[in-house]
Design goal:
Blueprint lengths: L3 E4 L5 E4 L2 E3 L4 H12 L4 E3 H9 L7 H16 L11 E3 L3 E4 L7 H14 L3 H13 L12 H28 L3 H14 L4 H13 L3 H19 L5 H11 L52 H12 L9 E5 L5 H11 L7 E6 L11 H11 L11 H12 L4 E8 L2 H4 L8 E6 L4 H7 L2 E5 L4 H12 L1 H6 L1 H10 L4 H13 L5 H10 L16 H9 L4 H9 L7 E2 L1 H8 L3 H13 L4 E4 L2 E3 L2 H9 L9
Parallel strand pairs: 7-10, 7-11, 8-9, 9-10
Antiparallel strand pairs: 1-2, 2-3, 4-6, 5-6, 12-14, 13-14
Helix pairs in contact: 1-3, 4-5, 5-6, 6-8, 7-8, 8-9, 8-10, 9-10, 13-14, 17-19, 17-20, 19-21, 23-25, 24-25
Protein name: Regulatory protein AfsR
Organism: Streptomyces leeuwenhoekii
GO molecular function: DNA binding
Length: 619
């Protein structure tokens, strides 16, 4: 197929065989844009209709879409090779743009940004960030109509662009390029006056360039704009930076050589800026594991966590739950956000592995309290006995501190509840939905679903290597689809791909699909990275009846099941099937994305196939 590119970061543009292709119809531009955003993936006809006509498409929408597709194929196909495979393929339930993701500038941008985040030196990172930003030719999708498309895509795209811009400025400041950064930051604060992290960066750049008076003046401008527009003060870190500049604190001396990084931030209060105060030595110690070395996607989920964490709650602070299936990336998301939001929690960030799902016994509340209190500096000899006394001491230690307590891998609400002090932000990860914690403690739940197909392919490419992955994009899509875009399974597949480095990815995908159960081919020999072992810890928590139903799903052909259907093939009353499906959904062995309908995703379905129909285990 000849080289075809689709550009959406600016005005809509399609190029094929070196010539610009004009798509004059607004709806055809919308249709091709939606397909390009999910290049290589089948897009359901219903979703295309919603983007074209809204929630009430006309009865003739399918016929009209077929007509649009036909016209697009004619426009995109080479004039001298009409018999060539069409650029847009038809499926039973939708259409697919048969282009590798790197043919679309949006995917190029995301890939370059991800590679920059993984770069090991500032020169390489700076080059990748600049290449990513150069793809933007103006406002994204500026001449593509469609309210649904704009609402669903533009905010995340623009936020990602700003994050890359801010990181690019950080790199420039760290390299001592203060004067150049000032020029860029003046433009950015004019365009985004409510992002106080940008104001903080501008202050640092001006100070580093020797303009202390103007740096202080820019703080006053920031304070006035935020007060008038939002009725709030600048972020505490920006206020602290201003104070240090007024007294010419020696901690700021290093800024003239290299500035501290200022992570991306949102408007108003509770932003995530880091100022020169980060160089001070009087901050409390933090007990978090390292952030994930390779973390792709989840921008919307991180933004949602920031919003939830900033909400006011009458009872003080409310717990936040990240729940989801085994291997979906709950711990990685929690750690990535906890590190990114470090400046929200100057009182400390503390981590406890509650061991709810794993080879060891779950940690009891008394021991979990002991771990946290030890991290807060309580000597072992001064630890009181019993849960109530330790709870009281924890409240005393955390009172008045803006602290984060990350409770990872919780088994149920009863294990977590004794650790809720009301004095700290508590972030819980669990395979359990923690319904009781929502009911009794006002917890906010963020359910983590599998990766999007695009993010899954980006992760595989990063793990396998861009040279190999980028050249076999279609096979990457097949591998991602095979495992349902589960991060754990994707990493296991990448391990197989790197172990059999000479094997084309198409053959790897074909071999896995042809195996009796592809999951058994991905054993790693290490419990915490072995998909079979990881899923077995969820299965082991099931009662006998839900376990029997789950094992029966190993031979069930449909991807979605209702209580009536489950009752039929399992031979139980509908009421019993309803209870058993609910038990499976609570642990995310099935997903109830639509009330009353339970999805059997690829990874838990593959695990069910490995289980015997009768078992002496959980069932």
């Amino acid at each position: 197929m000849p080289r075809t590119t689709v550009k959406l970061l600016g005005s809509f543009e399609v190029e094929s065989q070196g010539r610009i292709i004009t798509i004059s119809s607004g709806r055809q531009r919308t249709l091709l844009s939606v397909l390009a955003l999910e290049a290589g993936q089948l897009v359901p006809t219903e979703r295309l209709a919603e983007h074209l006509w809204g929630e009430e498409p006309p009865p003739s929408s399918r016929t009209t879409i077929r007509g649009y597709i036909l016209r697009l194929r004619r426009a995109l196909s080479p004039r001298t090779a009409r018999e060539a495979r069409p650029v847009i393929a038809s499926g039973r339930h939708g259409y697919q743009l048969l282009l590798p993701p790197e043919s679309v500038d949006v995917h190029q941008f995301n890939s370059l940004a991800a590679r920059a985040a993984a770069a090991r030196d500032s020169v390489g990172e700076n080059d990748l960030l600049r290449r990513a930003l150069s793809l933007w030719r103006g406002p994204a999708l500026c001449d593509v109509p469609g309210d649904a498309l704009h609402r669903g895509v533009l905010p995340a795209l623009e936020e990602r662009r700003l994050q890359v811009l801010e990181r690019s400025v950080e790199v420039a400041l760290a390299r001592g390029e203060h004067a150049q950064a000032v020029v860029e930051l003046r433009r950015l604060v004019a365009e985004h006056p409510l992002r106080d992290g940008l104001w903080g960066q501008l202050m640092l750049a001006l100070y580093g360039a020797g303009h202390q008076s103007e740096a202080v003046y820019q703080y006053e401008r920031c304070r006035g704009i935020l007060a008038e527009s939002l009725g709030v003060d600048p972020d505490p870190r920006v206020r602290e930076l201003h104070r240090l500049m007024l007294v010419e604190d020696p901690a700021l001396g290093a800024v003239r050589q290299s500035a501290p990084p200022l992570p991306p931030s949102g408007p108003g209060r509770n932003t995530e800026a880091r100022s020169a105060s980060a160089m001070r030595q009087d901050l409390p110690s933090h007990r978090l594991p390292e952030a994930p070395a390779l973390f792709i996607g989840r921008e919307q989920e991180q933004a949602a966590l920031s919003v939830i964490a900033g909400e006011e709650y009458p009872g003080g602070t409310r717990p936040i739950i990240i729940d989801g299936a085994a291997g979906v990336g709950k711990t990685a998301l929690a750690l990535a956000w906890a590190h990114r939001a470090a400046d929200r929690f100057p009182g400390g960030r503390f981590y406890v592995d509650l061991q709810g799902f794993g080879p060891a016994d779950a940690l009891d509340p008394a021991d979990a309290l002991m771990v946290v209190l030890a991290a807060l500096g309580v000597p072992p000899g001064r630890l009181p006995a019993g849960v109530p006394a330790r709870q009281a001491l924890l409240r005393t230690r955390l009172k008045g501190r803006q602290a984060l307590l990350l409770l990872d891998n919780a088994v149920d609400a009863e294990q977590v509840r004794p650790l809720l002090t009301g004095c700290a932000t508590v972030l819980v990860t669990s395979r359990d939905q923690m319904r009781g914690l929502v009911v009794s403690d006002g917890a906010r739940r963020l359910t983590l679903d599998r990766l999007t197909p695009v993010a899954a392919q980006h992760l595989l490419t990063a793990l396998i290597g861009h040279e190999r992955g980028g050249a076999q994009a279609e096979a990457l899509g097949d591998l991602a689809s095979l495992c349902g875009c589960s991060p754990l399974a994707l990493r296991a597949i990448a391990e197989s791909a790197t172990r059999w480095n000479g094997l084309p990815l198409e053959e790897l995908a074909a071999g896995l699909r042809g195996a009796p159960c592809w999951l058994s081919s991905l054993r790693t020999g290490e419990d915490r990275t072995d998909p079979v072992s990881v899923l077995s810890w969820s299965y082991d928590k099931l009662g006998p009846a839900p376990a029997r139903l789950y094992r029966a799903f190993g031979s069930y052909r449909e991807r979605r099941v209702t209580a009536v259907a489950a009752a039929g093939f399992a031979g139980v009353p509908v009421s019993a099937a309803t209870e058993q499906l609910d038990a499976l959904a609570r642990l995310h062995l099935v997903e109830e994305r639509v009330p009353g309908c339970f999805d059997l995703d690829e990874l838990p379905r593959a695990f069910a196939r490995l289980l015997p129909r009768t078992s002496d285990g959980a069932g």
